Amino acid sequence: MALAAVACGAPVASQPGLISDREIGELQQELVPPAQTPTQAASGKTFYVRLAWGFLAGNEQPAPNVDWSGSLSVDQGTVQLSQLTYFEGGDRPVAQNEPSKISWVSQTNRHFDGLVARVEVPSDDATLTFDTSRFHHEFRASELTGGDDAVFPVDALGQAVSVSSVPASSCQGGFVLGYLRPGQDGLVAFGGRITDRTGAFAGRARFEAVDDGTIAGNLVGEDGRSLAVLRGTLVSRDMGGGSFSAEMVDPRSGRALGSLTGIYASPQAASRGEFEGTFEQVCSEQAESPPGTALHLR
User: Which pTM was predicted?
Assistant: First the structure.
């Protein structure tokens, strides 16, 4: 694993193999062509929500198949499927005639499935419902329209549901999802994939935390170049997890580009833990960008 240096852009050696490129590559996204090009609502709220269910960090022990077939719906507004994560075999989206609902067939074993959806509601009073036989939860739109990260434990085996959201915007931003693994001398390495708001792959996030809670690393584009240097802090909490926040800085000019925030869980059912979060560029534009917009940050 390598992190780009702030001053000259040269790689800095780190503890190799703590979170490998192969592990990050496992977090594949499957594109779901949108029914129409998203446009910002003339009134109301539009946001993207990322969901994942199952063993979020993986499970190294044999596990039976678990049915997570279900739906995501709103009582006011529309829901549009944007991306799928880890859907394979018999996993598939289910065609719906209702613009307010998306459905899927999903079974997990040692890992997880997930998706990204675009949600448009008339107001923060709308209700978004995640419904499966193993987990049911209703969200007020006000919990998600401004951005949020949460993990809900489902059973004693370590299965959980995670939820992240970002508001629609032409400003660059999106989701981060990945793994963490403790190393030597109190260091913890984080590695994962970054996507734009629609869930389309945009690069990788690699950062490390040391004993004093300081974190440092990079967002790296598909071409391997540093998109942003990360400088921030990791906050531990009871029950083996915590939160993190970092400023995104231009690796050449040192100019502030935006922020990355999220939550993490330490290793339990696997030798690694998991983290998820969101990032936002400093920007004043409000109109939503079309899908497929390149992520440059500079």
Answer: 0.86
